[in-house]
Recover the amino acids of this structure.
């Protein structure tokens, strides 16, 4: 039985820490030094009809993060969005009802100057204390484009709108999250949610791989040390600063 458990740990490092809570996210990155580098556009999310969720993400990191987190990789869905905004746009309050593939439902609230600021505040208040990397990301860009070829009425105001949110991590790398729907408010909230989900997952995957690496070293499994070190080097590109991650990065340099 012990040999079977160890084999499972070798192939799936997430079994070394089954107590971590998971959050699924999606993302897309473009390097500041190479902003034209290609990204892969994938359809994702629970709604693929008129309100289709389309997000750009680095395929190799997404696949790696999914494999590391395995069954703990959860997808968050925005079930309900309520906004309260004053007339001069200096104050916006939001209430979000979220659910995940594990069946958990949660209500979060926040306020800010405008919808995006309020949604970010709500999600950071909920997830920031546990996932410190969220406190070091920075909004870099926010764009809304009307996809007029999707209109069903002549006037065109029913067209799909594409919201794109750009976020810098602590290393200055740009990640882009896009969402399309007929509600700009809803798409804006889902784009912010996608960004938060992604950095949460990246942080968790990095920590999980590092624990697997430590275990492999203790067992003198040079093959696994090489594998986990290589995978950590990729996942770290998708993380943002935390003291825990910085300590682990320094540890990797000493291998």
């Amino acid at each position: 039985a012990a040999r079977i458990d160890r084999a499972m740990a070798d192939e799936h490092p997430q079994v070394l820490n089954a107590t971590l809570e998971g959050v699924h996210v999606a993302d897309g990155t473009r390097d500041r030094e190479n902003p034209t580098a290609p990204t892969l556009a994938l359809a994702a999310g629970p709604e693929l009809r008129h309100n289709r969720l389309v997000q750009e993400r680095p395929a190799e990191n997404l696949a790696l993060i999914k494999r590391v987190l395995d069954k703990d990789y959860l997808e968050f869905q925005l079930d309900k969005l309520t906004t309260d905004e004053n007339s001069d746009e200096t104050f916006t309050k939001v209430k979000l009802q979220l659910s995940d593939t594990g069946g958990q439902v949660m209500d979060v609230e926040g306020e800010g100057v405008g919808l995006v600021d309020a949604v970010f505040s709500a999600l950071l208040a909920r997830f920031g204390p546990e996932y410190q990397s969220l406190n070091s990301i920075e909004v870099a860009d926010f764009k809304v484009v009307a996809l007029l070829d999707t209109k069903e009425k002549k006037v065109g105001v029913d067209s799909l709108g594409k919201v794109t949110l750009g976020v810098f991590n602590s290393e200055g790398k740009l990640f882009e999250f896009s969402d399309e729907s007929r509600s700009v408010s809803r798409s804006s909230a889902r784009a912010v949610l996608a960004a938060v989900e992604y950095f949460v997952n990246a942080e968790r995957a990095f920590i999980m791989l590092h624990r697997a690496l430590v275990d492999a070293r203790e067992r003198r499994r040079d093959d696994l040390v090489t594998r986990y070190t290589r995978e950590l080097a990729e996942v770290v590109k998708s993380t943002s600063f935390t003291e825990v991650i910085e300590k682990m990065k320094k540890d990797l340099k000493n291998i």
Observations:
- Confidence is low (pLDDT under 50) at residues 1-58.
- The radius of gyration is 19 Å.
- The first helix runs from residue 2 to 11.
- The CA atoms of residues 10 and 224 lie 7 Å apart.
